[in-house]
Amino acid sequence: MASSSYATLSALGAPVTLEEYTRLFNGPLADVLTFLSEHLVGRQAAASTRTTLFLAQEAQAKSQLKQPATTRSDAEKAVARLAAAKTSSVVYATQLTELQEKTQATSERLATLQRQLDAKRKTLLLLKVLEAKHTLNMQRIEGLTTKINKLRHTPLQALAVPTPLLQTNPGLALPRISHTRDCLADLHRLMLPLPARNPPLDPRERLRRAVARILNTDFSHPDTKRVAESCLAFAQRYAEAIRHRQKEKGTPDARLLDTKSQSNQERVVKLQSLVDRCAALRLLCDQNLAEISDNATASLPELRLSLQKTSQAAQGHVDFLRALVLATQAKAKPTKAEESESFASLVKSICRMSESATTRAVLEEVERVHTADNTSSIRARMRLLHPPPASVDLAAHLKTTKAAHARGVELLARKAAKAEAGQARADEVERVIADWRKVMGVKSESRIGQ
Description:
The chain has helices at 2-11, 18-24, 28-39, 43-62, 74-153, 156-159, 179-191, 203-215, 222-249, 254-332, 336-350, 359-384, 392-449. By secondary structure, the chain is mainly α. Helix 7 runs antiparallel to helix 10, helix 8 packs across helix 9 and helix 11 crosses helix 13 (392-449).
């Protein structure tokens, strides 16, 4: 194969040796060299072919017979180009349609996959939240189990609270740790006897001081002494009379004294038990506060982490519900343009006006109908009934009617403005489509003319 093609090319004057040609005759280049060896004819063959064609053209020009034309006219060329352009446009339109269908199918598949991915992400988020809650609950259960086992194996003697001794030192200042300790300190202060800070004064001297303070005189004034002695003498006489009366009545019953003494002893025992119980409760409260602080310190990071995860899960739920609500509203609720168009059409049909009527004409017609209805109703009332005196109800009714009329006119104006805006947008879209069609027509004509 290589030798035959080399012989052909050598006959045509190829400046290459057989060894170099064999090295080049490999792969795709071998096909190229084979094609050249088969289709190249050389200079002599080309010159003889040109001579033959030239002689044939001269003979055809000298002949009187009509020979078939070897060239095409401009019209035939234009028709051929037009047919080729139409065929190309059909092929391109078919390819474009296929690409659009494939693109739409790919978009739908992408949207489906995106929805599935969102659902799987939300499911994964819910599973993670449930797993975190389960882990936290298991940790809490393990902690409670450990504490219960610890309390179960702790002897009762370790849990017993010793009864503290009563504090007899009045100068002891308890720290203000809690209200319980303050209450216990107050109880101790009330139960313990108060020491005598100052020696008691003589009753006579105290009486004289009180009389001097009442009379606003000096302690050694004669009037003070006289009044104090008279009060003292009266008190002595009254005491003697009471003592004499008690002697006449006799001594009190010993059983009554024993009963009162026993009652006092029982009260003392009860108060002492209350004090002991308060002290025990104070110690228990201190222990419980310590355990609560330890538990709070230990469980605070876990609770914070749980709250963060719960908030993230709640945010995910809220986003999911918001997406569902928005999708439902988008499916159920019509657009503003449709509402405006339907409302404008309804008002025009009620007023018996054409669809091409403007907003201002619709407003004027509604105002005219409303004024005519009010005038006719007022005239009918005047014909049927005597004019009643002005009242608050009539004024309120007129005020309400005017307000309703104003709201109706405002609503109609707003709806009409929306309808005009929608119509303007529709006209703009139609104009853009017409321009696009013109541009596409110019482009197709330019392509056909090429």
